[in-house]
Amino acid sequence: MADPKPKTSGKRKSPPTTGWSPHTCSLTIDDGWEKPRVRKADKAEDKSEKPEGERIAKVIARAGVCSRRDAEKKIAENRVTLDGKIVTTPATKVTPGQVVTVDGTLVGDPAPARLWRYHKPAGLVTTHRDPEGRATVFANLPKTLPRVVSIGRLDCNSEGLLLLTNDGEVARRLEMPSGGWTRVYRARLFGKVTQADLDKLAEGVTIAGVKYGPVVADLERTKGVYSWATVTLKEGKNREIKRLMESLGLKVARLIRLQFGPFHLGQLEEGAVEEIPAKQWREQLGVGRKKHPKDD
């Protein structure tokens, strides 16, 4: 009996070819052999072996040293080092095990993310430093709090719920318009107004070339030329409620934020700060606990 023919892949039927390549200036030989393929899993393993790391300004901010913006300023001033070398760009990536210093002080591991409710009083500016010398939110917080940033802002004369966190990533997640977090306010309005007037905001309006999304405003009660209304919106643009009411011929005499997403002001006293349990806010935001080196 004749030997059976060897099995072939069927992918190549033409005979081996040779020829001169004008691109490589060398003789090419096609002998029918295929190059070994690299599995997708192998590619993934190669990528996993080269951690991308985090931008150094972000690492400094998460460690509670300063804000990301201030970290970038310190980098520009040559005050930051990575493994003993001066960092010249905030785009520098930091991988686990590398040593970062700011002004000669070692930057430690980032603390676990935390979230607080704060009842902001009127008359405080939501900033760390005010060029006009006005009183700020952060200068009036309890000294026991770590360095925190606000999630969004409230105008100087606005009051009510302001969320604070020690983690910039949490702040950005809550501030992103795509999150669609509902904000609820109580507004004391000056001027004659009816529910029909407020309903004009329900479809969204354009003021001075700026488009504002739909806003639900419910008239609560009226006494003379003053009224109280509950205002619900999702965008939260700068001075949005005041500009919307001005478009109706009204002035906002007082503005109190009652709710931001799933978080409520409740009975929190003015000027008071209260931490939200991590399990509660992580479940409400749908995020897991970040793992830090010291958790291992």
Tell me, what's the shape? elongated
> What percentage of amino acids are in beta strands?
25-35%
User: What is the H/E order?
Assistant: EEHEHHEEEEEEEEHEHEEEEHEEEH
Number of domains: 3
Which radius of gyration do the C-alpha atoms yield? 30 Å
- Average pLDDT for all residues: 83
Structural class: alpha+beta
CATH class of the largest domain: Alpha Beta
Describe the structure.
- This protein is α+β, with helices and mostly antiparallel strands and 296 residues long.
- It has three domains: 54-106, Structural Genomics Hypothetical 15.5 Kd Protein In mrcA-pckA Intergenic Region, Chain A, CATH 3.10.290.10; 115-178 and 262-285, Alpha-Beta Plaits; 182-260, Pseudouridine synthase (2-Layer Sandwich), CATH 3.30.2350.10.
- Helix content is 18%, strand content 29%.
- The protein contains seven helices and 19 strands.
- The protein has helices at residues 40-48, 56-62, 68-76, 168-175, 195-198, 240-247, 278-285; strands at 17-21, 26-30, 54-55, 80-82, 85-86, 93-94, 100-102, 105-106, 115-120, 149-150, 159-165, 183-190, 205-207, 210-212, 216-223, 226-233, 251-260, 263-264, 273-276.
- The strands form five sheets. Strands 9, 10, 11, 12, 15, 16, 17, 18 and 19 form a nine-stranded mixed sheet that branches. Strands 5-4-7-8 form a four-stranded antiparallel sheet.
- Helix 2 (56-62) packs across helix 3.
- The protein is elongated, with a radius of gyration of 30 Å.
- The N and C termini lie far apart (67 Å).
